[in-house]
Specification:
This protein is an alpha/beta fold. 33% of the residues lie in helices and 15% in strands. The chain binds 2-acetamido-2-deoxy-beta-D-glucopyranose (5 copies). The site of one 2-acetamido-2-deoxy-beta-D-glucopyranose has 2 residues, from loops.
Length: 482
């Protein structure tokens, strides 16, 4: 490679609203996977061919149950519909067959079998009562949720009207979720959709039909590999069903449904929360397999200079002396790859491979750091924390990095390193007490610290952080690169 540095494109990584809102589902758990496996094996011994269907159904019921906490299971048993109740419904499960009107996103719990007469004649909104409404996006901020397509559960109206006829029978359950919300921002895409989707769908072992409301083709294209690893079927866009050629496939029938996605914590999976037994270690293995990433060990490639990926934000939270930073990093022996483009980063196929080969990922607080999910084990994340952003830096990226088994270093800038000192006196609360600015209103704080702040890194002080990173990947002394 010629030159000391490769510069990958230009443009920017836009960070969405990092609203300071916690979602914590504290739920207990009742499904016992070991017991279930034993039961399954016994039934297989009894009669393998005959039991196949039975096993599938039992398996399916257990899968549904694994998504709910103890408290919600009695409701599921009595009504075949249950939602997680902990923080207002964010996920609902139906275990019996359902009919989904993909135009209105009404889910009917049938009271009668599918009528034999193919002459469909009902208006989609006729009687029936909404018994549950849910907006299937895993970020519980109310004004955001308002933008998410609601999904409604209803019981089929009684005898006098004809029952809905299934226009299409699926042999698997449906999983309904949204690609609205903050999709477009890598952090939010992984945090609210991809990790929760993994968590929610994995137990079905790809035998599940995804229905994506607020269908975003860019999202589907970007995460195509992940979506097709998690489901054997092409993602269904309910809106495309309103189109004439498809208009006879409006009502689709499924072996039960899940609406909404399970969320544990920011970029994290907690193995003791339902669905129990998952972890970020497993998720990262899944990513490695899905993107065909080599299981590199960041500490090992002794022969070559370690690769450092520097995420160079272009609009907000920019490094004002990036060249000096790169120079210092190269002096320490890193091969520095500066990534300036969100376009580069959104080509996950290629970018994940670059991240997997690097030993150290460096960036200011922002969505680009989400790429830590692709890092090799033993790799180091260095987050540069701007003024006033200690909390989101720790909660969105720092703690998750540690929990997924990476090494994490934080470089908190001093007031002199923030561009805000150019506009505000040191005694001004903007500089001396960022908490008080956020206390006046989240959007005020967001504008000041997330949108209006750039960073002039103190090279001398930052050098010791980078030296620590070098030590963590097993390089004790600076190398001469060439
Ligand atoms: C994981 O979940 C359990 C049970 O809800 C909780 O006690 C524990 O604190 C959680 N761990 C983390 C790291 O959040
Ligand atoms: C299993 O079921 C099949 C199909 O009903 C039957 O022919 C076979 O005899 C059964 N085998 C055993 C071991 O019960
Ligand atoms: C459909 O229902 C409407 C209103 O009940 C009725 O007037 C119409 O004849 C029905 N059409 C068919 C094809 O059954
Ligand atoms: C309607 O659906 C068909 C089949 O899915 C598709 O090929 C066609 O492009 C769609 N037409 C429009 C106008 O969306
Ligand atoms: C990576 O390499 C280091 C240093 O040789 C070693 O201590 C560590 O166990 C390795 N990790 C993995 C996951 O192989």
């Amino acid at each position: 490679m010629e030159g000391h540095r490769r510069v990958v494109c230009g443009a920017t990584q836009v960070i969405g609203l990092l609203a300071f809102i916690f979602l914590f589902y504290t739920q207990s758990f009742s499904f016992d996977p070991i017991n279930f496996l034993l039961r399954k094996q016994n039934s297989l011994k009894r009669n393998e061919t005959m039991e196949e269907v039975g096993v599938f159904e039992e398996n399916l019921l257990s899968s549904f149950k694994s998504l709910l906490s103890d408290d919600d299971l009695p409701t599921l048993d009595t009504t075949s519909l249950a939602c997680n109740s902990a923080t207002g419904p964010s996920l609902c499960v139906t275990t019996n067959p359902v009919k989904i009107d993909t135009v209105t996103m009404e889910i009917y719990l049938p009271t009668r079998p599918d009528p034999p007469n193919p002459n469909r004649n009902f208006s989609v909104n006729e009687d029936g009562q909404i018994i549950q409404l849910i907006r299937p996006y895993a970020w519980g901020q109310l004004d955001l949720l308002k933008t998410i397509t609601p999904v409604k559960f209803l019981r089929e109206p009684p005898q006098q009207t004809p029952a809905r006829r299934c226009d299409f029978h699926h042999k698997v359950p449906a999983l309904v979720f949204s690609s609205g919300g903050f999709a477009g921002n890598l952090f939010h895409e992984f945090n609210e959709i991809i990790i929760p989707l993994y968590l929610t769908s994995r137990v079905f072992r790809s035998r599940i039909q995804f229905i994506l409301v607020d269908f975003n083709p860019i999202f589907v294209n970007k995460f195509n590999r992940i979506l097709s690893s998690l489901s054997d079927f092409e993602v269904l866009n309910p809106n495309s069903n309103t189109n004439f050629t498809n208009s006879n496939k409006i009502v689709r029938c499924f072996h039960g449904s899940v609406v909404g996605l399970k969320f544990h914590s920011f970029l994290s999976i907690n193995s003791s929360e339902v669905p129990k037994g998952n972890s970020m270690i497993e998720f990262r293995k899944f990513l490695g397999k899905t993107y065909d990433l080599k299981s590199e060990n960041a500490s090992i490639s002794v022969s070559k200079p370690p690769i450092l990926v520097l995420i160079s934000r272009r609009k907000t939270r920019r490094f004002l002396n990036e060249d000096e930073m790169v120079e210092m990093m190269e002096e320490l022996g890193f091969e520095v790859v500066v990534v300036k483009s969100s376009k580069t980063m959104s080509d996950l196929d290629r970018f994940s491979k670059l991240v997997r080969t690097c030993s150290v990922l460096v960036g200011a607080h922002g969505a680009g750091l989400t790429n830590q999910v692709f890092l090799a084990e033993e790799a180091v994340v260095v987050q540069v924390v701007p003024l006033g952003l200690e909390w989101p830096s720790a909660v969105y990226f720092g703690e998750p990095a540690v929990r997924m088994g990476l090494r994490y270093l934080e470089y908190r800038i001093g007031t002199d390193e923030s561009s805000l000192v150019d506009s505000f006196a040191r005694a001004n609360p903007v500089i001396s007490d960022p908490g008080s600015v956020f206390a006046k209103g989240y959007f005020l704080g967001k504008e000041m610290y997330l949108d209006k702040q750039n960073i002039r890194v103190d090279i001398g002080r930052f050098k010791s952080t980078m030296g620590e990173a070098l030590r963590l990947i097993g390089r004790t002394t600076p190398l001469s690169t060439r």
